[in-house]
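Two proteins follow. First one:
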Amino acid sequence: MKYNFDEYKLRNNMEAAKWDSMGPNAKEGIVPLSVADMELLSPPEIINELVKTAEFGMYGYTWWGERYANAVQHWMKTRHDWDIQKDWIVQLNGVVQGLACACRAFTEPGDNVLLLTPIYYPFYTVIARNKRTLVESTVQLKDGHYEIDFEDFEEKAKTAKMFMLCNPHNPLGRVWTEEELRKIGDICRKYNVLVVSDEIHFDLIMPGHKHTVYAALGEEYADNCVILNAPSKTFSLAALCLANAFIPNKELREKFDFEVNNSGAYTYSIFGIRALEVGYTECADWVDQLNEHLYGNYQYFKNFMKEKYPEVWVADLEGTYLVWFDCKCFGLDGKTLGEYLRNEASLYLDDGYIFGDIGDGFERINIACTRQVLVDALDRFDKAMQKLKNNA
């Protein structure tokens, strides 16, 4: 079946966070390309299932059962070559909730939590709000490619209680290789640092790259980790508030599960459960075609910059649908640049500085949209930047 990735809907007045963030004066027809949810319709199989569920007419308390566990097992095995046991699953309302619960379950106030930065900004928030201490190991750009500085990482790991991994990495678009993950894991095991791996973008992998679930590296790695993922990025289901933690180590799982229940956020939507079940059992072809569409959008974006603005460096997109690009050549600090793009181009992106100080002057664009939406956005970018050059 050939799926349609050329259809989208304007989400004004739908209480969509990304759209409402444009403010009341946003121009009609403008599509924001910031927050990481898709401007593409979810798979028709999921839409049909949710309509049936809504028509049933009763929405009482819900808990996952055998059908749910079977669907999760099937997806992890067929898409990621990872054999899981059903009792490893701890259900969550979202991956960020999982990060926060891990912080409280496995560390104490003041403990050091290690990150590879720049990184998705809620990582910083979770650490700060739970009164833990942030320790950063900055990812290095070498020959146009982001790499981990393992010497620095090991020095920082010596002081840390927990390491929060993001794979694929947001916003850099890296898919960490098996070799890199083993180096990370060996260092963390050496210094007794727990690995909490956010793998929410794990299905969004570009050609030539392969995602490796951290726990699938081997029993010694699985015994010292928490894996977090969700169907939300894969199928555009963020509003259905459903995610999973996978914890092979029984002692760690019980501590984590206690914290989830202690937080009071342990009820789940029947719509999220049904969407996951259908997505993980019926929508593999849709995901394959989605990744082809995303890669085509990335190629279009990269070629546009190469032709029009060769001085703009664009990061390789290995995974996610989030493209990271360096705009320092335009001579504006990050905040001024973001305001200029919003005011002159009606272009709503995520400014790089929100991912850490090292991101200042970068922008992150969400390319999970139709090709025409991307073409229109880059046309506005071009006009705004030509105006900036002419006024310089």
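Second one, unrelated to the first:
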Amino acid sequence: MPTLNVSDLRPFIPAQDFALSKRFYAALGWDTRDVDRGLALVSLGEEQHFYIQDYYLKEVAENTMLHLTVDDAPAWHAHVAAVLRDSDFAPARVQPPRRQDYGASVVFVHDPSGVLLHLCQWDR
């Protein structure tokens, strides 16, 4: 049997307002660039990516979650809160870090379309 390696995973997330979603993720500090009509690539680093698509179903958006491992959940909370305070990304919101039973502190961020980001700092 051949070796069937996977080298990358890039989920697609919906955007109710495509331009607003792109601005939101860029404001968080991530590289956001159009790659096709109605499709933008968000790069969180050299090896972490996802796509924003100009497509929206409320039920899909509100049931889409991205889990991101971070080094400092409180710092991410402060950063996202400042972005939301200084710009109009309604109805985006952020919750303070909350301890989870599975061994992590997590900041929950709802993007402007309702997609939920889990910014997770694992216990060491």
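SUMMARY FIELD: The CA atoms of residues 27 and 83 lie 7 Å apart. DSSP finds three helices and nine strands in the chain.
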